[in-house]
Amino acid sequence: MNSRMRKLYIFIVVAICYMWAVPAHAQLQDQRRNFAIGVNGGVNLSSVSFQPNIKQTNLIGPEFGITARYISEKYFKMICGIQAEINFSQRGWKELIEDGSNDTYHRTMNYIEIPLLAHLAFGKDKGNGVRFVLNLGPQIGFLIGEKEYKSDPWDPTHRPQGTVEQYGKMAERKFDYGIIGGGGLELRTGIGNFLLEARYYYGLSDFFNNSKKDYFGRSGHAYIGGRITYLFDIVK
Fold first, then answer.
1. Beta strands of 96-104 (E only): which ranges?
2. Nearest CA among 44, 169, 189, 54 for reference residue 113
3. Measured between alpha carbons, how far is 92 from 221 in angstroms, rounded to an integer?
4. For 69-116, what is each residue's pLDDT tens digit?
5. Distance between CA atoms of residues 48 and 27, nearest Å
6. Cα angle vertex 129, ends 72, 121, to 5°?
7. How buried is 122 (Cβ within 10 angstroms: 0-12 exposed, 13-18 middle, 19+ buried)?
């Protein structure tokens, strides 16, 4: 099994486990219904896993979107449900150039992301209070734009031992998929639910072609995100 097929296999396995886990809990536990919608916003600290390696520091970019959450049951002290989102997410990378020059380079890559998450919460079931929440599941994304930022002057030719093939090379694959998960705290109040959460995304796809004839064998996204979400109950 080649590298691309292994990544796709991992993605499919996680997606199947997610789809199996949520209905399985629903069949075993006391039923309750809660549907909430809202908005989210935050920042990503992103980088790209390259092979051959490119030295980087984290690139900071915005993320925001809409969230819908459906909670269907309670399992002992654990509240279970599903959460879907549509987000704008800025990713990319910022290079760490250590050749004595003043060159700087970073690239922003803008995606529409769609995560589909298993949602778990621990704490008070009803009424106001604080819960600990966990979210995990598959995510797909679509590249809608990218831009390079180079210093002026710019002369990469004085880096004979560095990787320069990425300069001017735009993404060859716009579809992205991977696994995302994280946790945080939810504060339930009379005016809505406020969530503070940290997440980690690991991309299983590459945005440059990665066949044996191509220069890059790996070009996958990864980022750590911090976000705030506001949800208000539609059904409770």
1. none
2. 44
3. 7
4. 998 766 556 788 899 999 999 999 999 988 778 899 999 999 999 999
5. 41
6. 35
7. middle
